[in-house]
Amino acid sequence: MPVQKKTVRPQPKPDQVRELANEISRLALSKKAFDVSVLEIKELSSVADYFVMASGATDIQVRAICHAIEDGLRAKGIKPHHLEGMAGATWVLLDYVDVVVHVMQPRARDYYALEELWADAPKQEMKD
Asked: What strands, in cross-sheet order, belong to the sheet with 99-104?
């Protein structure tokens, strides 16, 4: 039986994780995402350190925002650990382990109200 090597991901520094969240916000804004915010959830959950929330008006815009994020980070050697929702593009999740990105159409964002669920998390609105 072949022995599989276990890959250990180097632990990023807290300022590197925050910079990743900021870079994701900038990439989303480059495709005219709106209501972009960063929720710092690291003291509330072990799921991630940050959620980046963004809205796109249509499925086409949501995909464009997600592609901009993926392409921009891939150019720096950063790939998502997990991606889901791209087919319907109502709510797309990009998981970068320490930063989880939620790009949603407004109706889905209002319905799921993640920001209300994480209301105790410090929140920063991101602008161009």
From this structure: 82-84, 91-95, 99-104, 50-55, 34-40, 123-125
Residue-wise pLDDT for 71-87, tens only, equals 999 999 999 999 999 99
Percentages helix, strand, coil for the chain (3-state, rounded to 5) are: 35, 25, 45
Give CA torsion, residues 66, 114, 77, 42, to 10 deg: 170
Strands of 50-98, DSSP E: 50-55, 82-84, 91-95
Residue 100 has which token pair?
């989880």
Q: Are strands 50-55 and 99-104 parallel, antiparallel or unpaired?
A: parallel
